[in-house]
Amino acid sequence: MRIIRNAVEGKELLLSRKPVADEELPMNIRETTFKTFGQELSPDEVVRRIIRDVREDGDNAVRYYNLRIDGADTPALEVTDQEFEAAYREVDGEVVDALKFAAGRVRTYHEQQMRGASLDFNQDGLGQLTRAIERVGLYIPGTRAPLPSTVIMCAVPAQVAGVDEIVMTSPVLPDGSVPPVKLVAAQIAGVSRVFKAGGAQGVAAFAYGTETVPRVDKICGPGGLFVAIAKKQVFGDVGIDAVYGPTETVVIADESADPELVAADLLAQAEHDPLATPILLTPSHYLADAVDSAINRQIRELEREKIARESLDNRGGCILVNDIDHAIALANEYAPEHLCLLVDQPMAYAAKVRNAGGLFLGEASPEAFGDYTAGPSHTMPTGGSARWSSPLGVRDFLKTISVIGIQGEVAEEIAHAASVIARAEGLTGHARAAERRLLGR
What we know:
The chain is an alpha/beta fold. The protein is built from 17 helices and 14 strands.
């Protein structure tokens, strides 16, 4: 792990966020693009073509891109009851129990959140109604790493919010199947239908509908570069929760922290993706060196050692700061997806945190708990968007309707002012409509 002993240099190198779009696409993706389209295309152009084709040719286009991009033949796009039954036979019972445990904690947390999310009121003829979105489509990435936890973290909040129909799409394995553990998680979390469509074609199918895949009102869930671009391109025709980038964690630790635990938390982040960002901020030279040594030992034990090393080399490292207040100031500016306070008296510093997707207080609350079983959704804002947005929750699946039911003298009182403003705007039709409500006219 690189240790940057100058905070200004560290901020420029680690906290500047190199845009993912600036990364050169891997050769295998470039080769697939050329074979599929017969020419070199930018990611934006690839997604635009896929969306156009799915809008025009529905299921056939989805099947075509599943085959060309994912190498999977999917004659039937919807997962059958028999496939769900087979999934339960294939998944170990201990895994099923753990998924049910996680879903229960996520449900309990979001039920508490729901109590403050419904703000219906009516006073003096003005009010608000809260309604759940009718149909939500979840895009859940992953095949080799199937991410059943993401199914739970996206579907359970939608279910608690009262969404009528929760549907899901997933990339598929080469044999044309959805990973069994993902199907088990879908049933546990209340997903009603699952479809086989990865990447941009999955997003497009939800945005516009096909013969098999229903059009949804909102698309939620994380994904890679092409999914993020697709969500941007369909937004406006359909709602989206957010555009998610690679995962990121900032660990703030002082001399009281256990270097072995700090190293473990950084490696848990690094193994996600070569583009993941694991960063340590500490004022302790001793801790920085001890964590570096611990990482060098622990990384050899990881199945995804190569990915973790790439992540640490590309985007990770340690910055030595003046003190913990300095570290929190840097973290607030960076606005990480995950912010972990492995410091003495973490609650005393929590009040100073302004920008983070999730805040993890103390060594007994690692970010890994948040990924699976703590309770809040692990689908959180990335790329600095924690400055203005929040983790996925029940509010993402609710909408409000303004209610205006003014009667009697109040109508007369506001009609005059409405008329004056309307005439100032040159909208005399609006003015006359207001004036006709004045008593005696």
